[in-house]
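The records we work with from here on pair a chain with its fold. Each token is a code from a learned vocabulary of local backbone shapes. A record is reproduced here so that you can trace the correspondence yourselves:

_____
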Amino acid sequence: MVLYIIGLGLCDEKDVTIRGLEAIQSSDKVFLECYTSILSVDKNKLEQFYGKEIIIADRDFVECRAEEIYTPAKEGNVSMLVVGDPVCATTHTDIMIRAFELEIEVEIIHNASVMGAAGSCGLQLYNCGQTVSIPFFEDSWRPTSFYPKIQYNREGGMHTLCLLDIKVKEPDFEAMKRGKIVYLPPRYMSVNTAAEQLIEAEKVEGRNAYNPSETLCVGMARLGQKDQCIIAGTLEELREQDFGAPLHCMMICGEVHDLELEFLKRYMVENSKFKANDHVLRGAAAVGTKETKSAEDEAL
């Protein structure tokens, strides 16, 4: 009697590991969590490949009925399928904690996720700092809580992976006021929207965490799929590019190594006006000047 939390990878039904497939096929119930991310194939294709009926666990299910996922694992095997890797979202961690409290055995089966696949653009993952989420701006809610984290990363020479907002099964509050339960169409933030919001955030905060016309960034779409798209340039340049269908993410570069830059050249916007290490090297130059001056004073 085990609760399996199984990563499905980033592309389609064939990305599941052999170990994951065996766990699915041994399960009495199989849930697909489709709140935190999406695959490029639908439920029917997964069912045909896995040979199992799949129960969709959407936002309402995960937030209000999560016990229906882990409680049956007290009497049999249950699989919760997660796009990407199971340990990359707090939603899955919360379900595991609840299962632990009921002394349910939990087994995690890992897979590829955007946290690793983002390195396919050529930026080294060990040069990354804190990952940030960019939420959709609304008329009366335009948060910039991601801004100081980007600034912290850049001041330390680190890249920032930006995960872009998705809105799935969001309630229509206007309809609810009229007594109707209606859900809004799904929305997936594009690199273009993220670039626009990051430009706005810099104007609002004004602390030079990045320069929209100079800082090198990388927009990525559908990582792990055959038609993945990677484009590098400044925020102002990425705002105008066509990245195609979701899901999208992006990197804001810190200090870029020559090898990273060489790899990125193949993805660069033509005639890009980026300046590599624009923010980091200015700070380093200032520190270097002070150290040189101090050394000269000691010599005198």
About this structure: The two ends are 76 Å apart (CA to CA). Confidence is low (pLDDT under 50) at residues 281-300. The longest strand covers residues 2-7. DSSP finds twelve helices and twelve strands in the chain.
